[in-house]
Design brief:
Keywords: Magnesium. This is 4-coumarate--CoA ligase. It comes from Triticum aestivum. Its cofactor is Mg(2+). GO terms for molecular function: 4-coumarate-CoA ligase activity; trans-cinnamate-CoA ligase activity. Mean pLDDT is 88; it is low at 330-343 and 544-548. The protein starts with 8 loop residues before the first helix and ends in an 8-residue tail after the last helix. The strands form 6 sheets. Strands 2-1-11-10-12-13-14-15-16-21-20-18-17 form a 13-stranded mixed sheet, with helices on both faces. Strand 12 (256-259), helix 10 and strand 13 (284-287) form a beta-alpha-beta unit. Among the domains are: 6-239, ANL, N-terminal domain (Rossmann fold, 3-Layer(aba) Sandwich), CATH 3.40.50; 426-540, 2-Layer Sandwich (GMP Synthetase, Chain A, domain 3), CATH 3.30.300. Helix 10 crosses helix 11. The chain is of the alpha/beta class and 548 residues long. It is built from 16 helices and 28 strands.
């Protein structure tokens, strides 16, 4: 086996936490010995049913103890776990499955229809095993996770095995065209990312960690592994909602969790509504997926009054966090205040010890000699995009440096400042959204001549998705309410929102604001849309109106 394997954390859990509670979900509560036995028996059961080293196993479902066990059990036998985003439409999931060609498909009850459609399809003959998380379902040859475990309880002899090239995880992210890309991540990357979080945030075996992030995202996965390696206790709720999260924090004395601006905004809103006075057990909060506004930081510091709040900057291709910054430390208060006054970007802190960052030349930026592409190098970077040959791998990866796709600069103290995304990628509610994908869907509407999509700053979502739309000559724009469904050749914001959903665009990608653009879009001499100029025009006159 390789020098490092994420399943090696099981030995530490068994040695230090065998009798201690390490996982809680609803009425289910496991100690360390039970969790380790669950992972090992599940691994042996999958092997017994034909899953082999190098195979890809796709998983879709909400957070659960079984899902967490799968994140270790699948790589334990040298297979590769490929979590699917539960917020995808079925059609988007199919694109990902076509990319990785899994040998097994594991799902919870909410996604039984996906399994049924896959079994009926002639396109996925590679899938030889269907497994359901939770209660058994009456579909074909589907077996439950418990059934897979049953014959292999007490397995102790098996040693962890690594897949070729040390790949343990395929984590999906959208490409510039909106098509899902499978980021192949090694055991080594996952281990050093976990150790970085333990070192910087300070996770330990006394921590009680609430899973607010889905286990299909790299942030949720890497933090889960960090807590497993630290020997802490996991509290799992199926998916985030503020009421369930606050209840879990109070009931289980949660000490740490991760957040994105949307989650923090929901927690603060719920706490004000229900007059929650404070959650004093929380000692550590790690924010990612966009910077917390000063308003959110102040609110979080009041609600979680004992918590150190950290912010992280990273990406899936770098196995999550590259830099960290403490947000509510008096020593950085001056810096935090400057962020709203300066135009040099947003400070995202310093790299963790294993991360190398440099600024590469950005040919598109001629205004600053110190600003450029943010590049990173080290064992934390991805093995590559799944299914791509070496020739298809970006040049910046082949020569050792990964281009993050972002632009920024490094100050004299070593802090990284983020200016923006090289190609207009939108970060909304912790999700990556690419304008081109949304524009393609909107442009398919018979009344739309052209659509331009971009993000604008939003205190809750990080960025809110905005669509500027020009309509065809024989169509009419109407300021319609939700009740007005459109008559004849009419287009409205509500009609376009519904159209996006009908076209199977994930809900988090659907624009929230629409502007009827009644004049020519600004373009370059080569005919390309000047997206930033258009965005600036919209920001300058954003108000309750739908035509510009």
């Amino acid at each position: 086996m390789a020098s490092g394997h994420i399943a090696q954390c099981l030995g530490g859990i068994l040695a230090r936490r065998a009798g201690a509670t390490v996982a809680v979900s609803g009425d289910l509560c496991l100690n360390g010995a039970q969790l380790v036995d669950g992972v090992r028996s599940l691994a042996a059961g999958l092997l017994e049913r034909g899953v082999r080293p190098g195979d890809v196993v796709a998983v879709v479902g909400f957070n659960s103890i079984e899902y967490m066990e799968l994140l270790l059990a699948i790589p334990y036998i040298g297979a590769i776990v490929a979590p699917l985003n539960y917020r995808w439409s079925f059609e988007e999931a199919v694109q990902a499955l076509e990319l990785v060609r899994p040998s097994a498909f594991i799902f919870d009850g909410a996604y039984s229809s996906w399994a049924l459609r896959l079994m009926e399809s002639q396109s996925f003959s590679s899938i030889c095993l269907y497994v359901t998380i939770g209660d058994p379902v009456n579909i074909g040859q589907v077996v439950s996770v418990d059934h897979v475990k049953r014959s292999c309880r007490g397995t102790t002899e098996m040693e962890p095995v690594s897949a070729p090239r040390d790949v343990g995880l395929i984590c999906f992210t959208s490409g510039t065209t909106g098509q899902p890309k499978g980021v192949a991540i090694s055991h080594t990357s996952l281990i050093i990312q976990s150790l970085a979080k333990i070192a910087v945030v300070g996770y330990g075996e006394d921590d009680v960690y609430l899973h607010t992030a889905p286990l299909c995202h790299i942030g949720g996965i890497s933090s889960c592994l960090a807590i497993l390696m630290a020997g802490g206790c996991h509290v799992l709720i199926p998916k985030f909602d503020a009421k369930s999260a606050i209840k879990a924090i109070q009931e289980h004395k949660v000490t740490c969790f991760i957040t994105v601006p949307t989650i923090m905004a929901d927690l603060l809103s719920y706490s004000r509504k229900d007059k929650i006075s404070g959650c004093g057990s929380v000692a550590k909060i790690l924010n990612g997926g966009g910077r917390l506004s000063d308003e959110l930081i102040n609110g979080a510091s009041h609600l979680f009054f004992n918590a150190a709040i950290f912010s992280a900057y990273g990406m899936t291709e770098a196995c999550s966090s590259l830099t960290f910054m403490r947000m509510n430390n008096p020593e950085v208060e001056e810096t935090k205040n400057q962020l709203t006054k300066q135009s040099e970007g947003v400070c995202v802190g310093k790299p963790s010890p294993h991360v190398e960052i440099r600024i590469g030349r950005d040919e598109s930026n001629s205004t600053s000699s110190q600003m450029g592409k943010i590049l990173t190098r080290g064992l934390h970077t991805m093995v590559g995009y799944w299914g791509n040959s070496t020739a298809d791998t970006p040049e910046s990866v082949r020569n050792g440096w990964l281009d993050t796709g972002d632009t920024g600069w490094i100050d004299r103290t070593g802090k990284l400042w983020l200016m923006g995304r090289q190609k207009g990628r939108i970060k909304s509610g912790g999700e990556n959204v690419y304008p081109e994908e949304v524009e393609l869907v909107l442009s398919q509407h018979p009344g739309v001549a052209k659509a331009v999509v971009f993000g604008v700053p939003d205190s809750c979502l990080g960025e809110k998705i905005v669509a500027c739309v020009s309509i065809r000559d024989d169509w009419r724009w109407v300021d319609a309410t939700a009740e007005h469904q459109g008559e004849g050749k009419e287009v409205s914001a509500h009609i376009l929102q519904e159209y996006c959903r009908i076209k199977n665009l994930s809900r988090f990608k659907v624009p929230r604001l629409y502007y009827h653009w009644s004049r020519p879009f600004p373009v370059t001499t080569t005919g390309k849309i000047k997206r930033e100029e258009l965005k600036a025009k919209v920001l300058a006159c954003m108000q309750p109106r739908s035509s510009l």
